[in-house]
Design goal:
Helices cover 43% and strands 19% of the residues. With 357 residues, it is of the alpha+beta class. Strands 1, 2, 3, 4, 5, 6 and 7 form a seven-stranded mixed beta sheet that branches. InterPro entries: GHMP_kinase_C_dom, GHMP_kinase_C_sf, GHMP_kinase_N_dom, Glucuronokinase-like, Ribosomal_Su5_D2-typ_SF, Ribsml_uS5_D2-typ_fold_subgr. It holds the Pfam family GHMP_kinases_N.
């Protein structure tokens, strides 16, 4: 369930992180993706009735007190100036505006509330931590006001994205789609699909089609790059009609359809080739300086045992596939351990809604 109701009336929504398996970052460029909900990590938002409307800071992510000036500076270097509180506020604002624009009545009897959050998603690892918080907040608001039917699942990813865009976060719809629907989802964001229905063409796939996957990341990562900064230059070139960027992005998008076919045929070797190609095309578009030495080191760890690997998102974590099976996976874990990298088996989150194309 997207929302659980506690005995005291408190609403709790837990939204998992995600892995972009194929096609990213073309979701922000009228492309296509295959993505999965990553149950290894999650963000959780609680909505509790209260006399006044309140947004409660998370003591770890939004600290206002420190033991020393050095501790304050250390926190800012590792986490930046912004926690998740602004995401709760932006989501509440955009939710109200969305309802007002569409004539959706919010019953006054629902009353005020307090919103709080916590998260286990590693910060700036390309695992969609910000949208998980916003999506969980939206789930709680929809249930609190009883308007889940008035804002159906296909409309929710764009609503979540609009809240993030209010904060200057540059991204595509991929993360929000899979976090709304859960499970494993194929997505088409082409102009034709978007014009036809006002949102993308989404299809839920059976997670059992996936071969075993592995997540590689650094447990104590250095501060990553904001995804908006990672995407900005390529986005401007794409908008300006740069032929090279547009051609390469189309090739990236085409990998999603090929990946769905490989999944349905249970062809792990073909899927591995597609993942490697996705990374190769990304490096051509963005350049290795933007992709980053740390990310390429994780890819190299996977490649050292013959595993396929690509970025899960904008950077900070890698998804790996060992097409040769368990013995290759064991060597991958050893290679990661030798390099001080975390390596976990990917656990796919449950489907929350059925996406029917």
């Amino acid at each position: 369930m997207a929302v659980q109701v506690q005995p005291d009336g408190t609403l709790v929504s837990r939204v998992h992180s995600r892995i972009g398996l194929l096609g990213n970052p073309s979701d922000g460029f009228e492309g296509a993706c295959v993505s999965l909900s990553l149950a290894n990590f999650y963000a959780e938002v609680t909505l509790a009735p209260s006399a006044k409307l309140r947004f409660l800071p998370n003591p770890e992510c939004d600290p206002l007190e420190f033991g020393s000036l050095a501790a304050c500076a250390s926190h800012i270097r590792g986490c930046g100036y912004y926690g998740g509180l602004r995401l709760l506020q932006a989501m509440a604002k955009r939710f109200l505006e969305h309802c007002q624009e569409r004539g959706i009545r919010l019953p006054p009897s629902a009353g005020n509330f307090s919103l709080a959050y916590r998260t286990t998603i590693p910060r700036q690892c390309g695992l969609s931590g910000s949208s998980a918080i916003a999506c969980a907040a939206l789930n709680c608001l929809l249930r609190h006001y009883g308007v889940e039917g008035a804002v159906p699942p296909p409309q929710r990813p764009q609503l979540v994205l609009s809240a993030e865009q209010d904060l200057g976060i540059t991204a595509g719809l991929q993360d929000r789609v899979v976090q709304v629907y859960g499970g494993l989802v194929a997505m088409d964001f082409s102009q034709a699909a978007m014009r036809q229905r006002g949102y993308g063409r989404y299809e839920s796939l059976d997670p059992a089609l996936l071969p075993p996957l592995h997540l590689i990341y650094r447990r104590a990562a250095a501060p990553g790059k904001d995804s908006g900064r990672v995407h900005s230059d390529v986005k401007q070139r794409w908008l300006a009609g740069d032929e090279s960027v547009r051609r390469l992005m189309q090739q990236v998008a085409a990998l999603a359809e090929q990946g769905v076919k490989a999944l349905r045929q249970r062809d792990a070797h073909r899927l591995a080739l597609l993942m490697n190609e996705n990374l190769r095309l990304r490096r051509l578009m963005y350049g290795d300086a933007v992709v980053g030495a740390d990310n390429l080191a994780m890819v190299k760890a996977a490649a050292s045992v013959g595993a396929a690997a690509k970025l899960t998102g904008s950077g900070g974590a890698v998804v790996a596939l060992c097409p040769e099976g368990p013995h290759q996976a064991e060597r991958l874990w050893q290679a990661c351990e030798q390099r001080g990298l975390a390596c976990e088996e990917v656990v796919v989150g449950p489907a929350l809604h059925a996406a029917v194309p």
